[in-house]
Amino acid sequence: MKAVALTHYLPVSDPQSLFDAELPTPVPTGHDLLVRVEAISVNPVDTKVRAPRAEVESTPRILGWDAAGVVEFIGPDVTRFKPGDEVYYAGDITRPGSNAEFQLVDERIVGHKPHSLTFPEAAALPLTTITAWETFFDRMHIDRHGANHGQSLFIIGGAGGVGSIAIQLARLAGLVVIATASRPETQEWVTTMGAHHVVNHREHLPTQLGALNFAAVHFIANFSNTEVYWNIMAELIRPQGKIVSIVENTAPLDLKLLKSKSATFSWEFMFTRAMYRTPDMSAQGDLLNEVAALIDTKKLRTTLTEMLSPINAANLRRAHTRLESGHTIGKLVLAGWH
Questions:
Q1: Quick check: 327 pLDDT over 90?
Q2: Per-residue DSSP letter, 25
Q3: CB-based burial of residue 327 (10 Å sphere; 0-12 exposed, 13-18 middle, 19+ buried)?
Q4: Domains, the chain, ordered by start
Q5: Whole-number Å distance between alpha carbons of 229 and 220
Q6: Checking CA distances to 3, which of 167, 193, 243, 285 falls within 20 to 30 Å?
Q7: Rounded to the nearest 5°, which phi and psi values hold at 102?
Q8: What's the pTM value of the predicted model, to 2 decimals?
């Protein structure tokens, strides 16, 4: 099968950082689906895993954790899918990724592709949607059916892939959404996604939120940088409020800042269920199916903004370069093998 792989961890400017390869097609066992990959999207996790370091792989490693495609074959324990089903998923960071013509993925973390979306439109969604869904409904325990209606949510990093779908999910849950964006085009995008208010993260955030009559907020979702915004989040969170971040820190965080408010801080890492084979692993497949229904009933929309074709090393290096620039809006997708 065709694949894009690496053996050395190099700057994306190096042609060997990601290269085209011909590799054996894997064989499904257990709960595995063998999926024929039609479209993939890129995420910051791709560039972080590829980032330069001394390690060398003895066999080519395939990255990529977002895909849409068609089930080709199934393992003997599969009960949720059959060959020919169209699917979308983010996969498992401990296994070979989606930058290949065929990929093995556990059926429990796979959803049926929204009928109303193309493969590229669907590939834009899984990783970011799972991240946002788990942030709100598993970590913050926000009620999906409106019990938290009218409460305030501050999203740091509103125009990125996670922020773009998070705004939509938060609106569905009835929250008042304040999102950060600094450029005119990103401010327009987060407004289009449904943010009630947009603030500029390059300016003093407490002052801007205060001008909007939000001296403090019920929930904060940090999809950008935990350390940079830590003190600000501690200042802005309401007593007994909840903060979730998806970006690991490199220096210690001062948890004492949250003590007097009895505020909760949690991490969200969407690969946890697959990495540890948690008993509720199938919750990811279930939520992707729920999201597909919301897409097909026009309650959510894809966050695809740009597409490259075909899927090959040159285009993946271009995509990684774009991500590393920090200026992408929504999701960048690659489609088709030639």
A1: no
A2: P
A3: exposed
A4: 2-125+272-335 (3.90.180.10), 129-267 (3.40.50.720)
A5: 11
A6: 285
A7: -135, 140
A8: 0.97
Segment 108-125, tens digit of pLDDT: 999 999 999 999 999 999
Q: Are 296 and 4 in contact (CB under 8 A)?
A: no
User: For residues 99 and 63, is the Cβ–Cβ distance under 8 A?
Assistant: yes
What integer best gives the mean pLDDT of the chain? 97
- Banded pLDDT at 277 (limits 50, 70, 90): very high
CA distance 117 to 106: 22
Q: What is the DSSP letter of 136?
A: I
- The whole-angstrom separation of Cα 255 and Cα 257 is 5
- Amino acid identity at 146: G
**Best CA proximity match to 220, nearest among 145, 150, 140, 165:** 140
pLDDT at 20: 98
Q: DSSP 3-state assignment of 218? A: strand
Q: What does the buried/exposed string (b/e) look like for 34-64 if buried means 16 or more CB atoms within 10 Å of the residue's CB?
A: bbbbbbbbbbbbbbebbeeeeeeeeebbbbb
Q: What is the DSSP letter of 75?
A: -
Categorize the per-residue pLDDT at 135 as very low, low, confident or very high, splitting at 50, 70 and 90: very high
Chain length of the chain: 338
